[in-house]
Amino acid sequence: MTRDGERSRIVFPALAFLALLLLAVPESSVDSARARVLSLLNPVLSRFAAWKAPAPRVASIQNLEATSPDKPVEMPAPNTSAETDYNRARIVQLENELEKLRRTEPFANLPGKIPPGVDANVIIRKILWQEPILGLDRGEADGLRMNAGVLHRGAVLGRIVGIGPHGASLALLTHRGMSIAARLSDCRVEGVLQGAKAEENGERFCHMAIVAREAAPKVGENVVTSGYDGAFPSGLWMGVVTAVRKTGDFQWELTIRPACNDNAVEIVHVLTGSMPEVPWPAAPGVKRGAR
Amino acid sequence: MRYAFTLTTLVLAVVIAQLALVPAFLPPVLRPDLGILVGITVLAFGPREFGLIAIFCLGVQADLFGSAHFGVLTLAYLAAAGVILLVAWRELVRGDVLAPWIGGLAGTVLAHVFYVLFANFFGVHYVWGQVAASLSSLAIAAAVWGLPIAYLTGRWLAWTNCLSPAVRERWANEARINAARRGKLKRA
Fold first, then answer.
1. Model confidence at B108, in pLDDT bands (50, 70, 90)?
2. Which residues of B touch A (CB under 8 A)?
């Protein structure tokens, strides 16, 4: 016992010292050592892993694929590095889908329901006459029509400006030719929101001219659709007032920052509803039934 | 030579079991840290320096496959073994499987407490609630699997002739007494 004790009195500190030395081993060396040991043990480990109920695992992957038939991926042979790569790619794919869906959720501060419409993917982005135009993968066959309003996350994004049977193009709020009937949400003054040229820092804004006897537009006030142009129902968020300039006794020129950043748009909601027909009275001086 | 063979087989068995068998067949609450259980058993049944070397090697394998910072778990294993030797060396080496079972349980808890404390020095911070949960599950798993692991490791050490002389003598005595009892029973 005494000799044993003497030896262990040397062995223990020596091992503790060695363990302290291990702390200084760089992570890269540890990683390569780990990889080497794992590849050495791979035949044994993969054999044991095969016991790990192979049928449900394959079935679960097949179920996963069944939920997304638009992205068929060929199944690799089980328990190979190809399977690991496949799973990694699948995770990235699903995370991407999740992020995409998260970005299509309506803004948290928007009340009410989104008007009926069709969701469409943005499949192309083009700059035509210095204005960005987005291409959509839905067209007339899907219920879209010319000049239909387009929303993104519940806020106004733009309008359909070109349409085909299975595709459409969309001009953004900031497009110079765009004009949409709008209303200031607090002071309830109406006007027309129009696209404008790019500002100095490259950010695109819209302009809105209002004419009113008594109005007090404020910076930070929200702008919503008034619903008078037939493309959008009233009350949809368009943007925020960033600058107010008085141009006359009863005139103001407002600068509006659009609600949606068009760079992040992947899925849009195209409105398909139409305004009810209003039975206007006949023009004065024309007798009823006269031709 | 036989010590090297025994140690290699033990380390290999622990690596394979820890990487393949335990995660495949056991629920999280019953997944033990096999390294410290086997190490404490070797310390209990084998010569003391062989036990310490075994604990070091098993600590290195644990570090390689399950540590946030390489070397910390080895240090924690050694510290736990040191504390157990200091406190209960005589009880540990008395040769029955209960001692390494309880030693393994204590070693598991001590090693992981030391691991968390040492890991703090290297910038790896754990949430104490999670630490408590992990420690509880490791302790439960050690209590459940400690006894069979101690028995199997002891048998393997006996088969490879790596037992400490005191333990070998005790087991031989017990075998003789058992054989004598069986003989008496047969004669009766």
1. very high
2. 15-16, 19-21, 24-25, 47-49, 52-53, 55-56, 59-60, 63-65, 69-72, 74-75, 78-79, 82, 85, 122
Looking at residue A58, what is its pLDDT? Answer: 35
Are B64 and A23 within 8 A, CB to CB? no
Cα A273 from Cα A85, distance rounded (Å):
46
Q: Give the lowest-confidence range in A77-81, B31-35, B116-120, B169-173.
A: A77-81
Residue of B9, B42, B73, B74 to mutate for A, most A C-beta atoms under 10 A: B74
Contact residues, A window 44-83, toward B, CB-based 8 Å cutoff? 44-45, 48-49, 51-52
Q: For residue B70, give the nearest of A4, A22, A49 by CB distance.
A: A22
Confidence of residue A75 (pLDDT cuts 50, 70, 90): low
Strand-pair category, A251-258 with A237-246: antiparallel
Chain centroid, CA A22 distance in Å = 48
B110-164 residue pLDDT tens: 999 999 888 888 777 778 888 888 889 999 999 999 899 999 999 999 899 888 8
* Six-digit token string for A31: 């990683």
Which tokens sit at B141? 């798993």
User: How large is the C-alpha radius of gyration of chain A?
Assistant: 32
- At residue B9 the predicted structure's pLDDT band, cuts being 50, 70 and 90, is very high
Give the tokens for residue B163: 């037992």
Contacts of A2 in chain B (CB under 8 A): none
Give yes or no for a contact between B58 and B35, defined as CB atoms under 8 angstroms apart: yes
> Contact at 8 Å (CB) between B7 and B57?
yes
Strand A155-163 and strand A117-128: the pairing is unpaired
Query: Cβ of B78 and A19 within 8 Å?
Result: yes
- CA A262 to mean position of chain CA atoms: 9
Full-model pTM: 0.51
> Would you say A234 and A156 are in contact if contact means Cβ atoms under 8 Å apart?
no
Residue of A nearest to B165 (CA): A1
Q: Which two tokens stand for residue B93?
A: 């080496």
A71-99 b/e (C-beta count within 10 Å ≥ 16 → b): eeeeeeeebeeeeeebeeebeeeeeeeee
Contacts of B65 in chain A (CB under 8 A): 34
B73: closest chain A residue by CA: A19
Contact residues on chain B for A35, CB-CB shorter than 8 A: none
Complex prediction ipTM: 0.83
Q: Given pLDDT bands bounded at 50, 70 and 90, which one contains residue A1?
A: very low
